[in-house]
Design goal:
This protein is α+β, with helices and mostly antiparallel strands and 586 residues long. The protein contains 15 helices and 21 strands.
Length: 586
């Protein structure tokens, strides 16, 4: 597919002396109070939105929640008015929006900007509790954890985590975030009016524009899969933003619905979605559900749909259908008004703008071959959550579920099962066991929850988590101090005391520590081991003597057999004790 280089739509009309320009599509680009703005006249009440280029992906895990906290504090003073307004914090932006009369819009936007200049920080702890309550009642979709598996515990991966930094954030932290991220240079305004309402005051701190964070990766290779066990199948992939990508996603959704619901009858929901991630890339998400007894068939059909699309088995009629739907979005009564939020977001991300004519032309140029190419790109970058078992048969690789190595240092075994242990090293900490190998290097630790009772919860940049409870492992205060000193201070969150009932306790209390030995087991080993070795040695000597003499007298061989039997009586339990000791069970 070939596309034209996007033009600057603001050059359609000459600019006025104040820099204002109107595009061929009827959208006015201007600056209000130092903030870039896009305007278009609409019927009915005025709707306005103020975007800031800051979101969850700009935080660290130890400060996560700070953007949402600023949003809540900025809206607090609006109280219980009749305005239809709200705020939203996304991965790469924060959005304040309102609908009402011009006077209502002025009151709301002026209030938001005034609050951002001087946040009501006396409400800080109250708003933190409100955010925790909001999180407790929030339902997550089936794709919620996919960002963690793809990006780890940084950047875009933070959208899979809760707001873990709330306990750490101080008034100074929140004020500094507001004054450096919620600035005029980092904002774009949109309004459904062609005139600036009287009295509008958008004074904000001065600063700089912040580009979207560079994406991180926790996947060594793609396509990759993991077993989520949630009863559905989720696929995500990151592809360049394009009209072909949008149309492919629509075709994918139709094909999944046709194969998994209408034909196979496996799924109630089978759909696909295309969502911009930043200025250049978008995330494609496909999902299907199924009952346990039909999950294998659903997974097979899901993979078959993708294989067919990659092979180019796409009907022209399907492409024409989704294209017609996409083009119909330009035929709304007030297309410029409908375009305003996305135009503002493109400006915010500094994505090249397209006119309606250019967007139509790009949609019209998409071919079936283009969709096949996008299908192959989607599969090449796919991360798939499967409900029950691996997907190696389809050519994917299992995503990492364990660390590559472990640290060296003192080993603290678990009280309940001494096969599991925590190893505290000079540069990191590991949790090891028969089915576990998790390591968090201190330098890569993005979050350390430190509880007064000694409990520690660590998260590595790769998303692996590890919990250390002194009650379960008997780890000493000195080792905890070494751990705390190794983690970057910016990653440490000091937690409040826990309810004693919430502190984990071993189910079978036993002495814990770096593989201590039980006195009774050692004594038994000596009592069994000495006779076993003596009798075994005597049996071997007698056997060799008889063989060398060439004797065949039965009574001699009966004596040898008796010696070996008595030796085994001691040797077998001695071996059991040795095995238990080797496994850390005594």
């Amino acid at each position: 597919m070939t596309t034209e280089t996007p033009s600057d739509p603001t050059t359609a009309d000459p600019r006025t002396s104040d820099g204002t320009a109107r595009t061929a599509d009827g959208i006015t680009h201007t600056t209000i109070g130092g903030i870039r703005a896009v305007l278009a006249p609409g019927s009915g009440p005025v709707t306005a939105g103020l975007f800031f280029r800051v979101g969850r992906a700009d935080e660290t895990l130890a400060t996560s929640g700070v953007t949402h906290l600023v949003e809540h504090l900025a809206l607090h003073r609006h109280g219980l008015g009749d305005l239809h307004y709200n705020g939203a914090t996304a991965a790469t932006h924060t959005h304040f929006h309102v609908t009402g009369t011009p006077a209502d819009v002025v009151e709301y936007l002026n209030g938001v900007c005034a609050a951002l200049r001087d946040l009501p920080l006396e409400r800080l702890e109250t708003e933190k509790d409100i955010l925790r309550t909001e999180a407790a009642g929030r339902a997550h979709g089936p794709a919620h954890g996919m960002a963690l598996w793809r990006y780890g515990a940084r950047g875009h991966g933070l959208t899979s985590f809760g707001e873990a930094g709330l306990h750490r954030l101080t008034a100074a932290n929140v004020r500094d975030w507001a004054h450096t991220r919620f600035t005029a240079e980092n904002a774009v305004l949109w309004m459904t009016t062609d005139t600036v309402p009287e009295g509008l005051d958008l004074t904000l701190p001065t600063g700089t524009w912040h580009p979207a964070p560079e994406p991180t990766s926790a996947l060594p290779t793609t396509p990759a899969h993991f077993v989520g066990g949630d009863g559905g199948m989720v696929l995500t992939s990151v592809i360049p933003r394009s009209a072909a990508g949008v149309l492919f996603t629509e075709v994918l959704g139709k094909e999944l619905f046709r194969a998994l619901r209408q034909k196979g009858g496996y799924s109630y929901t089978a759909a696909a979605d295309h969502h911009p991630r930043d200025a250049d890339f978008a995330t494609v998400t496909a999902y299907a559900d199924a009952l346990p007894q039909q999950q294998d068939a659903m997974v097979g059909a899901f993979v078959d749909v993708l294989a067919a699309l990659r092979a180019g088995r796409i009907k022209q009629a399907d492409l024409d259908s989704v294209r017609a739907t996409a083009l119909a979005r330009f035929d709304v009564p007030e297309p410029a008004v409908a375009r305003l939020p996305s135009e503002a977001l493109d400006l915010l991300l500094r994505r090249p703008l397209r006119t309606f004519a250019e967007a139509r032309a790009e949609l019209g140029a998409v071919t079936v071959a283009d969709l096949g190419r996008i299908a192959r790109e989607v599969w090449a970058g796919a991360l798939i959550d499967v409900p029950t078992r691996g997907l190696e048969w389809a050519g994917t690789t299992a995503a990492p579920t364990r660390s590559d190595d472990v640290v060296t240092g003192p080993r603290w075994s678990a009280r309940d099962d001494r096969r599991n242990a925590v190893i505290v090293g000079r540069d990191g900490i590991s949790l090891v066991g028969p089915d576990t190998q998790i390591t968090v290097r201190y330098a890569d630790c993005v979050l350390l929850y430190a509880f007064p009772d000694g409990g520690r919860h660590l998260v590595g940049a790769d998303g692996f988590t590890l919990t250390v409870e002194p009650t379960l492992y008997g780890i000493t205060a000195a080792e905890l101090a070494h751990l705390d000193a190794g983690v970057p201070p910016a990653s440490v969150v000091r937690m409040p005391p826990r309810d004693p009932d919430r502190v984990p306790r071993p189910k079978t209390p036993e002495p814990a520590g770096p593989l201590p030995r039980k006195g009774w087991l050692t004594a038994v080993m000596w009592l069994l081991g000495i006779p076993a070795l003596v009798l075994g040695g005597l049996s071997a000597i007698v056997t060799l003597a008889l063989i060398s003499d060439g004797t065949d007298e039965s009574e001699h061989w009966l004596l040898v057999a008796a010696l070996w039997i008595v030796s085994a009586v001691f040797l077998i339990p001695w071996g059991v004790c040795l095995r238990r000791r080797h496994n850390g069970l005594g």
